[in-house]
Amino acid sequence: MSRLRALLGLGLLVAGSRVPRIKSQTIACRSGPTWWGPQRLNSGGRWDSEVMASTVVKYLSQEEAQAVDQELFNEYQFSVDQLMELAGLSCATAIAKAYPPTSMSRSPPTVLVICGPGNNGGDGLVCARHLKLFGYEPTIYYPKRPNKPLFTALVTQCQKMDIPFLGEMPAEPMTIDELYELVVDAIFGFSFKGDVREPFHSILSVLKGLTVPIASIDIPSGAGIQKVGWGRLGPYPPDSCPHQV
Amino acid sequence: MSSAAGPDPSEAPEERHFLSTAEAAALERELLEDYRFGRQQLVELCGHASAVAVTKAFPLPALSRKQRTVLVVCGPEQNGAVGLVCARHLRVFYEPTIFYPTRSLDLLHRDLTTQCEKMDIPFLSYLPTEVQLINEAYGLVVDAVLGPGVEPGEVGGPCTRALATLKLLSIPLVSLDIPSGWDAETGSDSEDGLRPDVLVSLAAPKRCAGRFSGRHHFVAGRFVPDDVRRKFALRLPGYTGTDCVAAL
Q1: Cβ A92–B52 below 8 Å, yes or no?
Q2: Cys staple from B205: which of B201, B213, B226, B232, with CB 3.0 to 4.6 Å?
Q3: Which residue segments constitute the domains of chain A, with CATH numbers given?
Q4: What is the pLDDT of residue A222?
Q5: Contact list, B225 vs chain A (CB under 8 Å)
Q6: Coil, strand or helix: which one is A54?
Q7: Residue B89 CB burial class (10 angstroms; 0-12, 13-18, ≥19)
Q8: Cβ of residue A160 closer than 8 Å to a chain B Cβ
Q9: Closest-CA distance of chain B to residue A133, Å
Q10: For B56-106, where are the E strands, in sequence order?
Q11: What are A96-142's pLDDT values in tens digits?
Q12: Beta carbons of A131 and A95 less than 8 angstroms apart
């Protein structure tokens, strides 16, 4: 379990021994200047076979991930608020470890956080707030907002902390590359099914063209659900780009 | 001191290191009402940060097996809820046991209790009055009994007796927010006042922290937005990297 945490680069005490691999918040980085140390997941090529052999990291299928969630809610009586706060905080921590502010060009480093219509988007809102506290300058794009108190409260927290919300998504990848040093994809999570509807289809197309790094919360949004299947979540070797929709 | 939020005019704005009880309540109200934080969110952030403070004060590699056993004593109010969250996070690396004799009926406390139970954290049904038994069984104790503004008399017999026992502790004691039994303003000892080795101030230090003389004082307030800190004219050391606690 502690090995898993080292792999995910989390500095947090998150889960307990009874909970099997709580909702692995994997960070999938498509490209970019960062390096991954030997105990981290390798984005530069194939899986490091030594890492794989020495560390049994189980990746969850969609059904398993949903089952973990259900157990946490029903048996452990966690609330969505609690888990979302822990998830968003741990993602911000992982991102800050992968892309420390001192390694970025701007001060404070600019980050675009794209939030989808469900819980993954909520994770992104929490993540953006903590990134601000860690010294980044996040901007949020949140086109489809559920009309539920949890999400409206998270939006208020971000607004009160002067985190801007974009009115529209930049249409050209180059615009994003110029304005932001990192993009956080908090669009779709593990419960995503079916076709990608607008505006997210267009958003994902734009993200495909980016040169700045993308950090995906939980799974790369829209990643080959039909093509690759759910046996393998998490970072993909760069030659099978996860952003094909 | 008026109950409205605002710094004490007798202190220079840049010099403030502590909040009065009324200001602490006003800060919390601002987070809950203006920022729309949920109480559950804040308790989770405080409890998690308290656990991180424990790991900083008592790093795991330096501890023997016995020293990893932690007794967390929880009162029935918000301080106790923070203690329950702290115990759950400590469970990952340490071996916490909880003494939570007077249980709150509110949903937050009940859910936090369930989470601890489901993670196999034992709950003691009684606390020995013989302090030597506690010294021998545990490596350290976390005091999450009384927060600011809660009178010792409000929490019931078992908590009061527990505090009397803890006053005689020889193993390290970590107090969350304020040492239970201290007057939050003056820091004067009540009969049940404790002498913790570590104090973890939640959000910002309370005035009584000025009289803390233990080894480590942490502030767990990374989650407090800058604007709120400025509004209460608090000057505190910066947080490093992604740390949620800072040593004062």
Answers
A1: no
A2: B201
A3: 62-216 (3.40.50.10260)
A4: 73
A5: 133, 160-161
A6: helix
A7: buried
A8: yes
A9: 7
A10: 69-74, 95-99
A11: 999 999 999 999 999 999 999 999 999 999 999 999 999 999 999 99
A12: yes
For residue B9, what pLDDT is reported?
54
Quick one: tokens of A114? 């794209």
Q: How far apart are CA A135 and CA A108, in angstroms?
A: 6
Q: Kindly state whether B245 is in contact with chain A, defined as any CB-CB distance less than 8 angstroms.
A: no
Q: Which of B35, B226, B242 sits opposite A11 (nearest CB)?
A: B242
Q: What pTM, to 2 d.p., does this model score?
A: 0.81
For residue B198, give how far its alpha carbon lies from the nearest alpha carbon of chain A (Å).
Answer: 20
Closest-CA residue of B relative to A161 is B225
**Which pLDDT value is given to residue B1?**
43
pLDDT, tens digit (0-9, with 9 covering 90-100), for A151-161? 999 999 999 99
In sequence order, what E strands does A49-151 have? Answer: 110-115, 137-141
Q: Taking 70 as the threshold, does the pLDDT of residue A76 lie above it? A: yes
| Cα separation, B76 vs A244, whole angstroms | 53
> In whole angstroms, what is the distance from residue A150 CA to residue A71 CA?
21
- List strand residue ranges (DSSP E) for A56-195, in order: 110-115, 137-141, 182-186
Q: Is B176 exposed, middle or buried (0-12, 13-18, 19+ CB in 10 A)?
A: buried
| Among B34, B35, B115, beta carbon nearest to A76 | B115
The label of the residue with tokens 């490091």 reads: A48
Mean pLDDT over residues A10-31, rounded? 37
Q: How is residue B11 written in tokens? A: 């202190």
Residue A45: other Cβ atoms inside 10 A: 9
Provide the residue type at A111 as one letter.
V
Amino acid at B182: W
| Residue A126 burial by Cβ neighbours in a 10 Å radius (0-12, 13-18, 19+) | buried
